[in-house]
Specification:
By secondary structure, the protein is of the alpha/beta class. It is built from eleven helices and ten strands.
């Protein structure tokens, strides 16, 4: 997908993302300098995890609509360089696990070159690949890597995966990987829907020490809850499943939520997370354009992505 949009000129103060972004292969990205402020978008082209999870399909094209929405955003800090991985990570012939490992390899290599990686799905099964990539890189720096997950989601996504992974199993897979490797599983979820998770999932979350906040309690979440997560970890995996939002703001998702959270409630918390000095990776998932009136969901999530990017790099918007 090409980046394109409005052109108001070529002076620095009128530039937009589509005018400055560089689309490169992974090999070319790895040849870039490790210095400076660098963002790299990585696309994940998959509906397979949702299909396996018996969800409504459509997220495969989500990343394309996100790029379209991001294209016209203005440049506020010309020291930030924007890159896009030329070819999306593609699930071919239903081989989800292969694509997740390809994504993991890509994320690890980009992080080694100091990119702020933004992974865009596709189904939320993207999370297993993203986290594995972060962890693989973290393991090169420490024998006991500290990776914290902060997830905005209506669901725990800790379903049984004995018959294979899908878009509802990722964090149980990660938990089991952490247990195998004797690494702390630090999973924190904001926006959980009481009636969208079975008792078994609530029990499993408790068993694995998951910290979670119900959507109805989001106003109670503050820096007092988030800062300890940021402080005790060296890497933060920030993942946003778009079904966390209220259906009027995010109709184009795999599982719409009548009692979802509002964007203003999320942005307050995202600003706290993005202000961290720790190594941050962002991921968004589950936008289904076929159900998305006027690209409402894509526009919302694109704004959240850009807000996090600018906040992370300390760019001022006046």
């Amino acid at each position: 997908m090409d980046w394109n949009g409005r052109i108001d000129g070529y002076d620095e103060d009128v530039l937009r993302i589509h005018q400055v972004i560089q689309v490169k292969t992974l090999e070319e990205l790895l040849e870039e300098s490790s210095d400076g402020k660098k963002v790299c978008f990585v696309s994940y082209n998959s509906d397979e995890g949702i299909r396996r999870n018996n969800g409504r399909l459509g997220a495969r094209e989500g990343w394309q609509h996100l790029k379209s929405a991001l294209s016209n955003f203005p440049i506020f800090d010309t020291s930030i360089k924007f890159y896009d991985l030329k070819n999306p990570i593609d699930v071919k012939n239903g081989k989800l696990e292969e694509a997740q490992m390809q994504l993991a390899d890509t994320v690890a290599k980009l992080k080694e070159k100091n990119y702020f990686v933004v992974c865009m799905g596709g189904g939320h099964d993207i999370a297993y690949g993203t986290y594995t990539g972060i962890m693989n890189y973290a393991k090169t720096l420490s024998s006991k890597p500290k990776v914290g997950i902060i997830s905005f989601d209506a669901h725990f996504d800790m379903r049984d995966f004995s018959k294979g992974g899908n878009s509802g199993t990722m964090f149980y897979q990660i938990a089991e990987d952490c247990k195998r490797d004797n690494i702390k599983f630090d999973y924190n979820v904001i926006g959980i829907q009481r009636f969208s998770n079975t008792k078994r999932l609530f029990d499993r979350a408790k068993e694995y020490g998951v910290r979670y906040y119900l959507a109805e309690d989001i106003q109670k979440v503050s820096d007092l809850n988030l800062n300890p997560i940021l402080e005790r970890n060296d890497f933060i995996h920030l993942t946003i499943c778009t079904d966390v939002f209220h259906i009027t703001c995010a109709p184009g998702v795999s599982a719409p939520q009548t009692f979802g959270i509002w964007p203003s409630q999320a942005i307050r918390l995202l600003d706290i997370i993005a202000s961290t000095k720790k190594n941050l990776t962002l991921e968004v998932a589950e936008i289904s354009p076929r159900y998305d009136y006027d690209d409402r969901t894509s526009r919302l999530v694109a704004n959240l992505i850009y807000q996090v990017v600018l906040k992370y790099f300390g760019a001022e918007v006046k």
